Amino acid sequence: MSTQTPKQPERQEHNPTSMQRVVGYLERALFHNRIAVLIFFLVASVILGYAALSLRPDASFTRMIPTGHPFIANYLKFEDVLRPQSNVLRVLVENPNGEILDKQFMETLREVNDRVFYIPGVDRGNLKSLWTPNALWTEVTTDGMRSGRVIPDDYNGDEQSLAQVKQNIQRANMIGSYVANDFKSTIIRVPLLERDPETGKLLDYGAFTQELEKQVRDHFDAKGVKIRVIGFAQIIGDLLAAATDIAIYFAITVGLITVLLYLYCRCWRSTAVTVLTCLLTVVCQLGLLSLLGYGLDPYSILVPFLIFAIGISHAVQNINLMMSEMGQGATPLEASRRTFRALFIPGSTALLADAVGFMTLLVIDIGVIQQLAITASIGVFVAIFTKMFLLPVLMSYVGVSPKGMAQQHKRANSSWPIFRRVARVVEPRYALPLIAFSLVLLGYGYYAREDLKIGDLDKGAPEFRADSRYNVDNAYLLDHYTTSTDVFVVIFKTPQEQCARFNAADLANQMELNLLEVEGVESIQSLYKTMRFKILAHNEGNPKWAELSRDQYVMNTARVGAPSELVDPNCSVAPISLYLADHKAETLTRVVNAVEAFSTRYDLGDFEILQAAGNAGIEAATNIVIEHSEKLMLLLVFVIISAVVLWEFRSIKVTIALMLPLYISTVLCEAFMAKMGLGVKIATLPVIALGVGIGVDYGIYLYSRLEGFLNQGMKFGDAYFEALKTTGTSVAFTGITLAMGVATWSFSALKFQADMGLLLVLLFIWNMVGALLLLPAIASMLMRNKYPHD
């Protein structure tokens, strides 16, 4: 193999006339109007940069759920009656100095209740605590049934009043649900409105949680009262609050990549222009998002880094070829034009493949993932312009410094012993065992990923670490209260004014008894459980009467005064709330299957059993959508990207060589997730599609270079060695650099960011190794008859 650097190959187009004409036209238009191009990008950058300043974090409850799924359609149809069990916060107020039945603490609790009540976004009519009028007790006496407010109107805080409140709490059966088992804390249940009834605007979860933090948590913590908040809105609020940490890690990653890029090219000019162009891509992406009316939700907030990573991946190829051309005596302008001519087709194809990979996420009917797809696709759209047009023009002015050229000269005269060994993978004695080993890895990946689970696998919020404030608060609630926070609501639908009919009540009762036998269901709350108690109460507390009655008058009387969360005003919707041990995917699946089996087994007549609401019901629907969409998404990713690669290279064999390493990386990534206990969920599902989209860049650039040398008549081993010296170094540098950059995410306080970082590290490295070793090995074996071998 020659140690001299050959003339840089030009891309051999499949349709020379049309493609050369287009590339030639773009080249002339670009480099003959460099000042105009720079002015255009300067103006666009100022406009979009200014627009980016108005971009705000954004989150919505409805975007976090699959609104097209039947479960969610049922929930939205009956949202008014179901909201108290779905989008709800639990504000725990703890007395660190003793029990809650203390005059001073009870006054503090009243103030907490009032402050929460007036925060915009609270469904005030359904808010419930010890102090609200809907907190009622009922008891059976020899004189009949009596009831009243838990905190009576004549409460004055003395010992007798406090004793009365404690008795009322016991009568209302609120211990373990609204009052801690040890009486040291109590809960304010806060249902939220998705839209402001006055303005019609969506609830701003960031602003809401900031107001809650300021008005309640900070204010009362300063008074010595411990406030804990559990619920979806608090999760989103904490994620949005962590945006500063994400920005810090982004800055650290950019700094690390900048240093490594300089060490690679030893040219501050190229390094500065490359990094600034990549950052400009991110700024323009954010500006376009703002102009299009989008925000950055907590799960899309990492996308700007991915766009930066894509930019670095393409820019390194540009720098590498630019240095090589100038090393052969070309001026900066000539080198830029040659680089543009050589990289425009493979670069555009790679970016198109990236965009396709991102857009396939649109098949997942969850708003937050679809917005992530749109956000990433907009970023790739911007990258096409900044990397394909702006960067070559800038490099034509700055060129490469003498120190950078010295580095290039050193590389050009190096014997490259490592790459000489690597290039031997195209020989059959190395290629065949490598391919066989890869197939064994693929088989192991198939076996290991059988344990891959859908949904959350841990208690609490998986977005945060176990010692985070939210998960510590959630653990406190689980330790001190009996009632679970994981609520699965079955919607029992009847014709109007028939929910209290014996036939309806009997069917619902049978379903409740059936569901109590399901593993993971701890207790049930429903209208019919309340009605049985009232029938018992109206019959002197005799246990023999603790049953539903065929007498409609008795049933109607028992329904009167039922809480609004148990039945709608028309007596046609009676939610049945199942309190679960956890929200793991297996538990949710068992409940869903049990409800479905009951509905199938019994003749429901005019009645309907609909799933599902409650936070656990909504999560069950999300898991179902993810499970059904994951395989479709991966199929589309590989089919469409394969079509793009096939269109580019016009060869099925080349397409197989490029796509097989990516597929093996994907399967191994899923196997790793299974072994590490990472479930497939909103936070992790997009990573694979993003990894495939970025990983295909390596293969397209490398094979384009290899094909160019092969078309010059070089033998396969020599051609691959020359491709390694140029594009191969860029691929290796990019893969290692990006992996090191995202590896810093493992220190993030956000567990989902750490998980995404770990998965991206693996995909970056595996895709790099696959492109450098497995791709040429497969290509050399598949095309032995087309190109000469040693």
UniProtKB/TrEMBL annotation:
Residue stretches making up the SSD domain: 275-397
Keyword Cell membrane part of the UniProt annotation: yes
One Pfam assignment: MMPL
Keyword annotations from UniProtKB, A to Z: Cell membrane, Membrane, Transmembrane, Transmembrane helix
Membrane topology: Multi-pass membrane protein
Regions crossing the membrane: 35-53, 246-265, 272-295, 301-321, 342-364, 376-400, 430-447, 632-649, 682-703, 724-747, 759-782
Superkingdom in the source lineage: Bacteria
SUPFAM superfamilies per the UniProt record, alphabetical: Multidrug efflux transporter AcrB transmembrane domain (SSF82866)
One GO term describing the cellular component: plasma membrane
Localisation: Cell membrane
Stated name of the protein: RND transporter
